[in-house]
Prior knowledge:
single chain, 35 strands, HPS3_C, HPS3, HPS3_N, HPS3 biosis of lysosomal organelles complex 2 subunit 1
Amino acid sequence: MVQLYNLHPFGSQRVVPCGQEPAHFCCGPDVLFVAGAAASCGVEVFAVRHEGRCEPLGSFATLGSVLHMAHSRAGDYLVTIEEKSKATFLRAYMNWRCMSAGSSRVCVRMVGHKMEESYSETLKEQMSIVEMPLSDPPLCVSCCPVNGDLLVGCKNKLVMFCLKYLVINQNLTVLDFERTLILHIDNFIPAEVAFCARHIAITTDLDVLILKLELIQSADSTEQSTHRVSTLEEPGNGSVKDEDLSTHTLQLELDEFIICQKPVELLGEESKLCEIPITLESTELATEDTKHFQVRYLLFRHFAPDQSPFGFCEEMKLHSVQLLPIYQTGSSVTAHEETENKRELLSLFCFFSLPHVGYLYSVGKVVELISTYQYSEKSEQAVLTPQFLHVITSENLQCFTVRCSAAAARDEDPYIDTTAKACPPVALDVCTLRMQLFIGPRAICHFKNHIILLTKANTEDVTERRKPTRRMLSRKANSIKSRTNSESEPGWNLYIINTVSTIQLYREMVDYSRTYENAKTESCIHLLSEAHLLVRAAIMDPGFLKSDDKEELLRAFRESCAFLGDCYSRFDTKDYHLALPYYRMAGLSMSEVLERLVSEGDEIQTYERGFIFYLTHSLNEDINEELSKESANKVLQIFSSADPMQLPHILCSPCMRNACPLTAVKYLHKVENNMPSVVLTLTKAFMALKMGDLMMYEHEMGSHKETVLASGFTEQPKLLRQYKEGIVIPTEFAVHLKEMQPGLLVAATVALHENGKIKLEEADVFFKILCNNSENTVPQLLVDFWEALLVVCSQEDVLQELLLRVTSQYVWRILKKQLPETKPLKTTEDLINSCNRFGFIFPWVTFIMSMGSPPDKDYPEDISKLQSLLCSQSINITAALPILEPLIEAGNVGLTIHVLCSTHLGKYEDSIDQLLKRCPAAAVLYAQHELKDDSRAVWWNKLLPELCKRTRLTENDYPVLISSLKETLSVVSMELELRDFLSLLPEDGTAAFFLPHLLHCSQRKLLT
């Protein structure tokens, strides 16, 4: 479907003062080349100035009449296909600008001809004509806009010439070509070719084939250079031979009837099935830098003559094939040639047309049909630009919109259609902006903001042109050649038509859209989308960064986003959610959006889904904007009528800080009558705090159990924490809970963490700010949070991090003799009973602590928690050792920590040494608890010899050592055989001491 609008994309027109009838013309960056018709063998060059003023630069002769011509911006050369004496030639005109300076020197040379040093000083002051001989007559030609390479179409093949820059000396660089590749295509006669960034589009009368030349890494460069041919496997049915195809074609020619083939469209990989085999022949000299290519098929399309919607058409032929590149936005581009080649290609589009319908494809990252253009009458030619498609028919110049910028925007940012960014869809209906009457349009081309149009009128048309009632674009007086004899007026004209500036046309589209605001919402959105894409295409242009109207275009872009946001907010459309990204792209604050959409004092205004969607998402996200009291109360009123269930969540937004709490409670009471919830109760309690109504607060908080309240905070975390410039900040509610219900605050924060609503590091900041602590100190409430999280945490990495944190805090307090600033929420016994991360304290640890000095008893909670933690198997002791090391020498506490760590590491002998050295009375208790199973042998291999040795040498602890020795002997005598036990006895004459145990051993032996 084509939308039709009556806009004015065409501005003033001027006549190009040609000396002879034009046959062909093309454009450079600032010039127009015009080749004469019939037997005239020459090209006129015109400089195109501001508003399309043409100034003759000069002219140069050609070998014959020009059949085709093209200009390459890269290299600034003109290439022509010329005919003389029924023979065609391919020529490139280099350094043609010297002709305008008055130089008449011309150098004609063959391609690849070596430049002689003797010509080095004069070459830069003369035009150079490069002749490129071909084995077959050239039929069509195309220059690559990216690198200036040349592609020539001949019967059954395409020939590629690479543009070369030859440095003659320090002051002179000469352009030349090298024929590098031939693509042999059997039974294929190209009518037109297009060439861009190694992408090739070829058309015959009814076929379109798009290819891409891909660089390959040659496995055997020697073999490639020897054979110099790289043949691809024939796509499609490999059993079809060339002879079969020729026989089949001959048979069709002999038949006296016509067989109309069915139309075919093959995209991407499927296009290999087109059964058009291509053979590559490399013709460049083989070197280390030689490039080897392979062909990738992108698209094949065959049209049947009966596909015209206007009936059977014998003259149905394809025309106007073009490849349009769009470059990466924001790349540093200037008009200079050296940087022109560095532009990064973003997207590539291909256009081709039948007489009554045109097709636009994306052939970059994805091959797909973007738009189809239906013409009102038979087209003669079409030209594609990033913003428009210009089509000429027998009587009209038509301007259609295109979707290239929408597709390129998605290539540049695949995630553009989100809550942050948006772009009108590629599938948006195309529209005709203008159908401008002309008499006999024949050819068209385009560059910058100019359209060059050739018209040729019949005799009756010329008569018609003299009538004063004709309606055409106004001509500038200074551009019309004076003619005294109207009968001698020629029947042709070459016009330069200025397209209006992007900003001017954008303004007209916006004004036009207002006529649809109330009548046709979709048309309003469609036209504003067209305006947006028009500006977006201008911004994506490589010259945008250096354009004079850069700031004006950016303002128009933001303004168009705002207009689209208004549409999706005001109108009831299925894409209402787009209001959010468009307002964000417009850079509008919430207050500004409210001013645009909300009428003052209108209490019964209705609000569409798009506006409510925008407000809901904006208020639920953490943005640094506070609405005024009036705006916040207006938002309350909007949601109370449009979506009252959102009110509890809306009131928790930082943006609504200035909302009247009394008004909020009034609205919340209405919601509670219909749908009570925990979040609603908490929100009412929050509002009661703001009003200072503690009675209402206590009533609301007492209506649910603490566990239910804690889970309620997970549904709306902003009741407790909010973000400011990326930093988590506690709310007034959290401050109040810290003083009055710290247990609920900790439980709620644990629930937030477990539901992914607050990270561990954010919780650290949250509690430190809440307790007014510096970054280096840890408040007890944070330790309470860590301990509570240990109870429920199931993630092993988080668990180990928590264990190290609480361990570090326990150690720090014990060493600093620092008591917690608030009473801990959980005792050691509470933690042991509720969490397997804390274990029962071992008897030998309790025994050691009972013998400790009074200072060790000043911090029983931190010490017992640390010991309980080490008595479990949860902590990674290797990671904890650096934290525990400063505590090891701290009296009996340090002894228990040292021995517990050694035990975790399996160093039982070291543990016994430490105990015998610092607390011998605990050695046997330790052994009885720890030396079991695999460590049982430590009893007799370590403990017994050490006790015997220390008993002889020590006097102070003699009773303790003797008692420990007896306990040890009781265990050893029960475990060892009599012979093994005897081998352990010391040889110092004290065997009598061991006789009872020997007797016990022998009796046990007899019993068994």
